[in-house]
Design brief:
This protein folds into two domains: about 45 residues; about 45 residues. The protein is mainly α. It is built from two helices and no strands. The protein is about 80% helix and about 0% strand.
C-alpha cells in the first residue's frame, strides 16, 4: 500500500514482486487447505467406537430374556395341564 501511495508513482518491479509474493502465499494456503480437507475426509472418528456392537448385544440379551420368559410360561402351562390331568385321573 505504501508503494501505491508513493507520490512519484508505484514502481512496477516492486508491485510485481509484491503481487508474486502474495500469489505464492495464496497458493501455499490452497495447498495447505487441500491437505487439511483430504486428511479430514480420511478421519473416521467412530472407527474404534463399540457403541453399535454393544447396543446390539444388549438388544440380543433382552430378546433372549424374553424368549426364556416365554419358555418359562410355556413350562408352567404344561405343568398346569399335567397337574389338571392327574387331578382328573384321581377323581375317576
Amino acid at each position: 500500500m505504501d508503494e501505491m501511495a508513493n507520490p512519484s508513482g508505484p514502481r512496477k518491479e516492486l508491485i510485481n514482486n509484491h503481487c508474486s509474493e502474495f500469489m505464492q502465499l495464496i497458493k501455499d494456503i490452497q495447498v495447505t487447505l487441500r491437505e487439511e480437507i483430504k486428511s479430514a475426509c480420511e478421519y473416521r472418528p467412530f472407527e474404534k467406537c463399540d457403541y453399535v456392537p454393544r447396543i446390539l448385544n444388549e438388544i440380543r440379551c433382552k430378546k433372549l430374556e424374553y424368549v426364556l420368559s416365554q419358555f418359562d410360561d410355556m413350562k408352567r402351562t404344561i405343568e398346569g395341564y399335567h397337574a389338571a390331568a392327574l387331578d382328573h385321573m384321581a377323581l375317576d
